[in-house]
Design a protein that fits this description.
By secondary structure, the protein is of the alpha+beta class. It has 31 helices and 31 strands. Strands 22, 23, 24, 25, 26 and 27 form a six-stranded mixed sheet that branches. The protein has a four-stranded parallel sheet with strand order 2-1-20-21, with helices on both faces. It has a four-stranded antiparallel sheet with strand order 6-5-7-15.
Length: 957
């Protein structure tokens, strides 16, 4: 038992204690559930026919989707949930129709990995985890509309996830209209000849497989053979965004390799410009916007074709087309498709020995190098390694401006994930190309005049020279000269020349790659796709949705050595032959046919790409969302030109994962006319993290934080000295504190207050259980100011409060209201504490009007005690929908303020004056003050600077 729950607590029968808090909180949670207190009404038609709803502004408030972990919640998890709850409660009390609820993002690897280890079905463990998490969240008193809650693993939900996938599959991006359109529109263009086929044949002359291939090049969801991030340790491929900076899986920290597999992709790159441009209209933290801009990575430059004899062109994208005359070799990514087509049977005569890597033939060299490169992550490949690696392909390309033959290498510092997977190397003016050229004894040509004294003979340089503010040199041929031009002028001239010659064109490139959408796992949404005997993909008709997961005996993908890049995946679904091989009538006029189901599943991000829409209309089994309901809650409006959720709160770690993916899906659905909002989340707020001290013994192993003792500034566990660092809170670090513990010791309202009072919401802060008692005492004083601890009777009176109390109260109302609206909950609590302390100090029974407004003031922060006190004050309606107090301006403004009078910068007098005093009146008072007169001692005055009501500055003559 803590010091706060001592015999003193027990002695007063109606004292606010943890036991009383538990009783109050349980009763009011039951009341809210029974009465649907937090249920937000939807419009049932035209708002004009519902004047009560039309008169209320709406507010849609969301938390980022939680995953129901088996470990349950620690006190760090509810930080954002409590904050949105406080904000939502304040919005309700200021007249808003508030939609606030919470569901569960329940597909994903953790449950599946647990299933692999224990044999427990992922659904069973996930549902058990959800039951526990719901219980923990309910205990916190969160005001969620529970009718709207769901989990992504419910078939009624993922039916629509599959439906959205089919909308994306059956769409293409019309660059002229700058939006997605149904694939049927594209087929019509091919059929009527408006759009030619790639080889010029009539559409009717193409086979079904050829048509499918053509359409696959346009579809927003498509399957392709491409280099992917392969994680043998997880048995699945990963999107670029799921690979950490050190080239390992975000989940599980397994090595990630490059492999070539056939996978489903989302053509998110088609939306790159819109994803970039629409950031400007969003109310998001600038740091998140910057991360998205950098990830999208827009750059302007030129596409240039370098012919290779007998093998077509190597196409490069460059932002420095002005340096084309300096390109002395080329580099392809090891995975580039062109590599096999350009390598000759033998090394060309005179091939430099350094270029071959000691191999007998180009094919042997390329094969060996590719295997070496596949074992590295993209980050490792792009690191500024001291030793540059690569191998000559045996092929030469032609520099289109000089006609010079340049050797073509493969090297791991070039990636398929950016540009075209090929570069023109200008070693004199690029640091990585310079290092590679030195390592392989390749020529360098200076084409940008150095600003220092190094001269133009690049072979003598110690490093590359890069500049955007210099003149071009050594850049002339019989057809074009760039000599003497600046970089900008040279870029424009060479780009136009390339276009005119059919050798290239100005273009825009993006760092963003298409979204890899396949996972070789069991616990995810099945793809609503089947393949016919010719391997052509067919969408399932909507009548066959949802396609549910089958039962399987083995949840694990084929497991491999996590360090073995040569392994291949085998999915759990592929082993269920009865489910995979089916005879179906797809309603396309072809009757029943044999098909093979897709055996990959969707990634765990799929369900969270659209869940905000399901909150709006959770029981709709006829359409994704009712248009009128979507328009009401999320449609564009003044200040929100692209629509979206009014407030979305969550961690900053999803900047280029969930947030980017959800924006993409929202835009596709908008283009196709399914929703009015082009963006999912208008305002984003990133809460900080609650941290905790981690204690480690001499072996570096974490020890239980609760068992550590502090003695003379040092820390000991079982007599052994341990180290202490501030870090994350978690079960593995043995420093987790559960909300259940704090609720049992102090009550949920105390936990809510403490988490909100710890500091600004967007800043990380350390947890200190010992400090929780401060908020507990605040609630005890609040209770004591209204309820007699001996009798349990309310002690308020109907007398009018004194003026000092009115001023303290109305200043608190004004300040707390502003802080609530601005999500400055820590300062709001400080103001509540200040006014409550004032009332405690004044003593005596509180005026009823003061007590009621005090309860309303605290209601968003500590709803259980507020409900109890509101009921004891004689009210029968819940405090949740009462009006938030409004401050009287007459009491908010101080009666007097202190004005400082300075002479030559020194304070000579302080005047107590009215806040509304004019400059002229204040100047006259200051000059007449005896202390000012004495200080001037008859000296003349050159200038008087007045800043009413706080400052007068006198400058003597």
């Amino acid at each position: 038992m803590s010091e706060t729950n001592s015999a003193v607590d027990v002695a007063a029968p109606h004292r606010y204690t943890a036991a009383m808090a538990a009783d109050i909180e349980a009763r009011w949670q039951d009341f809210w559930d029974a009465h649907g207190t937090y249920e937000a009404p939807n419009p049932t038609g035209d708002l004009a026919d519902d004047p009560e709803l039309a008169a209320k502004p709406k507010k849609f408030i969301m938390d980022m989707f939680p995953y129901p972990s088996g470990a349950g919640l620690h006190v760090g998890h509810p930080l954002g949930y409590i904050a949105t709850d406080v904000f939502a409660r304040h919005q309700r009390m200021t007249g808003h129709n508030v939609l606030h609820t919470l569901g569960f993002d329940a597909f994903g690897l953790p449950a599946e990995q647990y299933a692999v280890q224990t044999g427990t079905h992922p659904r069973a463990s996930t549902e058990a985890n959800m039951v526990n998490m719901k219980s923990q969240l309910r205990r916190l008193g969160l005001g969620h509309d529970k009718r709207r809650s769901f989990a992504t693993i419910e078939a009624d939900y993922y039916k629509w996830t599959q439906w959205i996938f089919l909308q994306i599959f059956n769409s293409w991006y019309d660059t002229e209209a700058d939006r997605a359109r149904p694939i049927a529109d594209l087929v019509a263009q091919f059929e009527n000849g408006e759009r030619p086929t790639p080889d010029g044949r009539d559409w009717s002359a193409l086979s079904a497989a050829e048509r499918a291939d053509v359409l696959g090049g346009y579809r927003l969801a498509y399957a392709s053979d491409a280099p992917v991030n392969w994680s043998p340790g997880l048995g699945t491929v990963l999107a670029n965004e799921e690979v950490t900076a050190d080239g390992r899986s975000e989940r599980g920290n397994f090595p990630v390799f490059k492999a070539k597999l056939r996978q489903w992709n989302m053509r998110i790159t088609a939306y790159a410009d819109r994803l970039l441009n629409d950031l400007d209209g969003l109310d998001w933290p600038e740091a998140i916007k910057l991360q998205q801009r950098n990830w999208i990575g827009r750059s302007e430059g030129a596409r240039v074709d370098f012919p290779v004899d007998g093998a077509g062109d190597i196409t490069v994208f460059t932002t420095r087309q002005d340096t084309l005359f300096g390109a002395t070799y080329m580099v392809l990514a090891p995975e580039h498709d062109l590599v096999e087509r350009i390598i000759p049977a033998a090394w060309p005569e005179g091939t430099h020995p350094v270029w071959t890597g000691g191999h007998a033939s180009p094919a042997e060299a390329v094969t060996a190098y590719r295997k070496q490169a596949a074992a590295k992550s993209d980050v490792e490949r792009q690191a500024e390694a001291k030793d540059k690696t690569g191998v000559f392909t045996g092929a030469y390309a032609t520099n289109p401006v000089s006609g010079e033959k340049v050797p073509v290498f493969i090297a791991d510092y070039v990636l398929m994930g950016y540009g075209t997977g090929a570069i023109m190397a200008v070693p004199a003016h690029d640091a990585r190309d310079f290092a590679f050229a030195r390592a392989f004894e390749l020529p360098m040509r200076c084409v940008v005049e150095p600003s220092d004294d190094r001269g133009t003979d690049a072979s003598t340089w110690e490093d590359a020279f890069a500049s955007y503010d210099a003149k071009l040199v050594n850049s002339a041929s019989d057809e074009i000269s760039l000599d003497g031009l600046g970089v900008v002028e040279a870029k424009a001239k060479i780009t136009e020349w390339l276009r005119a010659k059919g050798l290239g064109e100005g273009t825009v490139n993006f760092r963003l790659r298409d979204w890899l959408f396949s996972r070789q796992r069991y616990w995810g949404e099945p793809f609503p796709i089947v393949y016919d005997e010719d391997g052509i993909a067919h969408p399932l008709p909507e009548s066959m949705l949802p396609l549910e997961l089958p039962e399987v005996d083995d949840y694990s993908p084929r497991t491999f050595d996590p360090e073995d890049a040569d392994t291949q995946p085998e999915t759990p679904l592929s082993r269920n032959a009865d489910w995979v091989n089916v005879t179906l009538d797809l309603g396309d006029g072809n009757g029943p046919k044999k098909y093979r189901r897709e055996t990959n599943t969707m990634p765990n991000w799929a369900g969270s790409c659209w869940y905000e829409l399901r909150y709006l209309d959770p029981n709709n089994d006829r359409q994704l969302v009712d248009p009128a309901i979507e328009q009401y809650w999320m449609g564009p409006r003044e200040g929100q030109p692209t629509g979206g959720v009014d407030l979305y709160v969550g961690g900053a770690e999803h900047a280029v994962l969930h947030l980017l993916y959800a924006r993409f899906w929202s835009k596709v659905l908008h283009d196709l006319g399914h929703v009015s909002s082009a963006e999912p989340f208008h305002k984003l707020y990133n809460q900080g993290m609650i941290q905790a001290f981690v204690y480690r013994d001499s072996r570096g192993i974490a020890v239980p934080a609760a068992e550590v003792e502090e003695r003379d500034g040092a820390f000991y566990h079982q007599g052994e000295k341990v180290s202490r660092v501030l870090g994350k809170m978690g079960k593995s670090l043995k420093n987790a504190v559960t909300p259940d513990e704090i609720c049992a010791e102090y009550g949920a309202d105390t936990l809510r207050l403490y988490e909100m009072a710890m500091g600004p919401l967007d800043v990380s802060r350390p947890w200190d259980t010992r400090a929780v008692v401060g908020q507990y005492r605040l609630l005890q004083r609040l209770w004591r100011n209204i309820v007699d601890e001996e009798t349990g009777e309310v002690t308020v009176v109907d007398a009018e409060p004194d003026e000092d109390t009115l001023r303290a109260l109305h200043k608190a109302i004004d300040g707390v209201g502003q802080d609530m609206a601005g999500m400055r909950f820590n300062t709001a609590i400080a103001k509540v504490t200040e006014v409550n302390n004032h009332l405690t100090k004044v003593g005596g029974p509180l005026s009823r009007s003061v007590a009621e407004r005090l309860v309303l003031l605290v209601a968003p922060l500590a709803p259980h005690i507020a409900e109890e006190l509101w009921r004891r004050l004689g009210h029968t309606e819940s405090v949740v929908h009462q009006d938030f107090p409004v401050a009287d301006p007459a009491y908010v403004v101080d009666e007097t303020v202190t004005c400082v009078v300075q002479i030559k910068g020194k304070v000579r007098a302080r005047l107590e004056i009215s806040p509304s005093i004019s400059d002229a009146e204040l100047e006259a008072l200051a000059l007449a003050d005896p202390a000012v007169v004495a200080a001037l001692d008859g000296a003349g005055i050159r200038k008087v600077i007045v800043r009413a009501p706080k400052l007068v500055n006198i400058v003597p003559a």
